[in-house]
Design brief:
alpha/beta, seven-stranded mixed β-sheet, SAM-dependent_MTases_sf, signal-anchor, EC 2.1.1.-, transmembrane, methyltransferase
């Protein structure tokens, strides 16, 4: 027994037994630990559904979040609002100029003059073009596209129509001897400097009188013994619905004499475009423009006049030297195209045919033709007859079969006037009444007209917004010009907008009370917006700036061109356009060019070569904008 216990003790105390016992205890401990961990995981897994419900709300509320920072006041500079819609609520930007901006330009003049003197002394040349020469003295009254003196002395209309030379001017048209700065409006309505219109035979016709060094305009007393004002009163009494200055806003005076009819209508809020063919002995249009009356050299010939359909509310032909009934009435049909639906045509017969058979024959032919083209004779008093054009096509369509002249084709574009031959047919009126439904003046300036929808242009549904945005854009800019450059002191009268768009520039001048008229030129390279311009109550013309403009030299106080050169440089010679601008610009006249920075250096170079005083200014968008303003002045 003792040996057995001793043996057992020996086994327990052996190293192997001790190792085995330690390994067993470690295994039991690991097993217990593993079992405990799996039991905890199962408990968590089973308790997850119980923890999905939200915890009970606490009794204490959290503090409110801080208010958002205030939204900064951004100035809108575009016509698209934050929703992407068209909007007229925007700012163009102002000129950051001091009150002495005009003096600043004067300093530029003196610096340029001093620089020129230094260049002459040193023999250096800074301009690649050099200086343009002065043309021959015979070109003092040069009108490039109407310069054939033999043709303009004839009565052959086809031979005296517009024919432009192959090559443009390469020199500066000279001033007549003794030329003076024109008499200011409104005094110029009644008198102009005789030295500014050196050649005329109208004194012999008693249309004008020479008194000392001025031509005096007696108000057409030779043709209207009671004066133009009484004549206008007579017309208003004959047909009160004409309503000068309200219903009638835009008029055309054909073969206008010295434009006294248009000059006196201006005080009745009617803008009258006076037209006549060039005659080297009469200078009718030159007198009109010197007086400050809208006028153009043109002629009824074989092509359409450069005005859209339904342009004029009233057409006046007092003893005009036009045979309206010749060639199936093709010339009267052109007048019908330009006359607004419901507009009035006034014709005064030649009094020298009194009590002669030729007068009766002429009247019968006129009466027959006007009846066939659906004009209504509303009043005849003495030698004065007034017709009214139809309001729609119903009369034309209800004529007897075979009655001439026929209606024009429905595909005929009656607003296309550039190099389009005349057609012996009646221009159709729009079936939707566009052109006839106008508001009275002056509300029609800012009301988008119906014909805005018929203009071929990129925009469609946003046309009204673009129309209003353009008006606001130019109103803001012209307001800046008036304040920064003192336009009110320029005494502007004859103004041309060389790329007129919808006429927003002209509307701004009217709204800001600049006493002037604007020739709105619509280039043939762009959209034809002339119908909208006339519907607003302004005048304009279609023109290709690769060719000379149909006016006398020295006829405009201000030439305005926005975005013109960067477009026309692809088609035209830029220096030819600038030389044409110099021909049209009066001495002491101004030129404002808003255009791309990329073309400004070339324009400045040409301006220097012509002897203009010029300076570059930033637009309202700031010094890093893509456009700049080139301001020029033509000095004596």
């Amino acid at each position: 027994m003792k040996s057995t216990i001793t043996a057992t003790t020996d086994i327990i105390t052996t190293p192997n037994f001790i190792k085995f016992t330690a390994l067993a205890l470690l295994s039991i401990s690991l097993l217990f630990l593993t079992h405990h961990l799996f039991s905890s995981t199962s408990t968590v897994t089973l308790s997850l559904p119980l923890q999905l419900s939200p915890p009970p709300p606490t009794q204490t509320s959290s503090p409110p979040p801080p208010p958002p920072p205030p939204v900064p006041n951004f100035v809108k500079t575009g016509i698209i609002d934050e929703t992407g819609a068209m909007s007229c609520d925007f700012e163009v930007g102002d000129f950051h100029l001091q009150a002495d901006s005009v003096e600043e330009l004067q300093n530029v003049v003196e610096e340029n003059d001093q620089l020129s003197e230094n260049e002459k002394k040193s023999g250096s040349v800074t301009s690649v073009i050099g200086k343009y020469r002065v043309c021959e003295e015979r070109l003092t009254d040069y009108i490039p596209c109407f310069n054939n003196e033999e043709e303009t002395l004839t009565r052959n209309l086809s031979s005296s129509e517009r024919h432009c030379p192959d090559n443009g001017l390469d020199c500066l048209v000279p001033n007549p001897k003794g030329y003076k700065i024109p008499v200011l409006w409104p005094n110029s309505r009644d008198q102009v400097w005789s030295s500014n219109v050196p050649r005329t035979s109208l004194v012999k016709k008693k249309w004008v009188k020479l008194k000392d060094d001025k031509y005096i305009f007696p108000g057409d007393e030779e043709q209207l013994p009671k004066g133009v004002d009484n004549y206008l009163n007579q017309i208003s009494q004959m047909v009160p619905e004409i309503s000068f200055g309200h219903r009638t806003r835009v008029a055309l005076d054909i073969d206008c004499g010295v434009a006294s009819f248009g000059a006196y209508l201006m005080q009745r809020n009617v803008t009258t475009l006076s037209i006549a063919q060039r005659n080297v002995n009469e200078n009718q249009i030159q007198f009109a423009l010197e007086r400050g009356v809208p006028a153009m050299v043109t002629v009824f010939s074989t092509r359409r006049m450069l005005y859209p359909s339904q342009a004029f509310d009233f057409i006046h032909c007092s003893r005009c030297r036009i045979n309206w009934t010749r060639d199936d009435g093709i010339l009267l049909l052109e007048a019908n195209r330009m006359l607004r639906a419901g507009g009035y045509f006034l014709w005064v017969e030649k009094p020298e045919y009194k009590n002669e058979g030729i007068q009766l024959k002429q009247w019968k032919e006129m009466e027959d033709l006007t009846t066939r083209i659906c004009w209504e004779l509303v009043k005849k008093e003495g030698y004065i007859a007034i017709w009214r054009k139809a309001l729609n096509n119903s009369c034309y369509l209800n004529r007897d079969a075979g009655v001439q002249p026929p209606l024009c084709d429905s595909v005929d574009n009656s607003d296309n006037a550039w190099n389009v031959d005349l057609r012996a047919c009646i221009t159709r009126l729009p079936e939707n009444g566009y052109g006839a439904n106008l508001t009275a003046w002056p509300a029609r300036i800012h009301n988008p007209p119906d014909r805005l929808r018929s203009i071929k242009m990129d925009a469609d549904i946003s046309r009204n917004e673009i129309f209003r945005a353009e008006s606001k854009y130019w109103n803001d800019i012209i307001d800046s010009y008036i304040r920064a450059f003192r336009w009110k002191g320029f005494n502007l009268r004859n103004v041309m907008d060389m790329r007129a768009g919808f006429g927003g520039f002209a509307a701004a001048l009217h709204d800001l009370e600049i006493d002037c008229w604007v020739m709105n030129v619509v280039p043939v390279s762009g959209f034809n917006t002339l119908p909208v311009i006339y519907d607003r109550g302004f005048i304009g013309v279609m023109h290709d700036w690769c060719e000379p403009f149909d006016t006398y030299p020295r006829t405009y106080d201000l030439l305005h061109a926005a975005g013109l050169f960067s477009i026309e440089q692809k088609r035209c010679n830029i220096s030819s356009i600038m030389l044409e601008m110099d021909r049209m610009l009066r001495l002491d006249g101004h030129v404002y060019i808003r255009d791309s920075v990329s073309i400004m250096s070339e324009l400045q170079e040409i301006a220097s070569a012509m002897g203009w005083v010029h300076a570059i200014h930033d637009t309202g968008e700031g010094p890093h904008a893509s456009w700049k303003i080139l301001i020029c002045e033509k000095r004596m």
